[in-house]
């Protein structure tokens, strides 16, 4: 097929992009979104600070705009993200212990309820593990409410939306390492205890190459009985086209890899300012990386 989304569909995958509501009025942006992608992730509009700016006051306008755009484009929506130590509104940052735990669980419940039936998959918990090389939990205020905060968030999300796929999402987990193995151990424990979890998101913010054990890492999680999703793909460096092809091929090789999301549409839309890590250049033209992905999707 001649678009990312159509080519991914032919291989029973989605191909998505993170999008920003303020850019939906840009015709180049909106056209690329509509024609190339079959899934969207709100880059910021469904985060805690955006949806509950003051305690008990929920603001869904921007998130709703992204959902309605996706519905008009017949695209699915990945919700991002219900519980994350970053981008917490200041009122929540001032909480700790049981007060924070109940505020977080209420937030998960309210937002998942609001988007019930409109979100295909949620990043229920984002980035709960540390980068200390030992697979420790990140020592956030959420973690300090008790080690069971992650499963509590997943249970609340399932209670609010029984049909959405519930994902754990993280970065620097793209190969077999202490951090990804800590996530693996948590997912294995959750599955053994019947804690609701359906998928694991691998953000895959990469430079030049994917880890050599990228596919093997995806496969070991899939073998636990969860879907794997590449959730925030962007690749900087001169080797980016080959690396994008490798990541795409790895997803196609793992049957439970249900799709790929790139973290933005044009290089100028990227949070990695100046790294030019995406598939379209600032003018919206297709890059060599785009062609590498399209060819990988269409191969075989
Ligand atoms: O909306 C305000 C605007 O009103 C204000 O004028 C402006 C300047 O202060 O800030 C704007 O908010 C910014 C927001 O992006 C929207 O542009 C925040 O400051 C800025 O921190 C926020 O950055 C986002 C970052 O997450 C933190 O939430 C990036 O766009 C987004 O790409 C990035 O995405 C994260 C994923 O959610 C999780 N994984 C890592 C990934 C990259 O950091």
Low-confidence stretches: none
Number of strands: 9
Q: What is the chain-wise order of helices and strands?
A: HEHEHHEHHEHEHEEHEHEH
Shape designation: globular
Main β-sheet: number of strands, strand sense, barrel status? 8 strands, parallel, barrel
Taking strands numbered 1, 2, ... along the chain, how are they ordered across the largest sheet? 1-2-3-4-5-6-8-9
Ligands bound to this protein structure: ligand G3I
The whole-number mean of residue pLDDT values reads: 98
Report helical residue fraction.
25-40%
Instruction: Please indicate the percent range of residues in DSSP E strands (runs of 2 or more).
Output: 15-25%
Helical/strand content category: alpha/beta
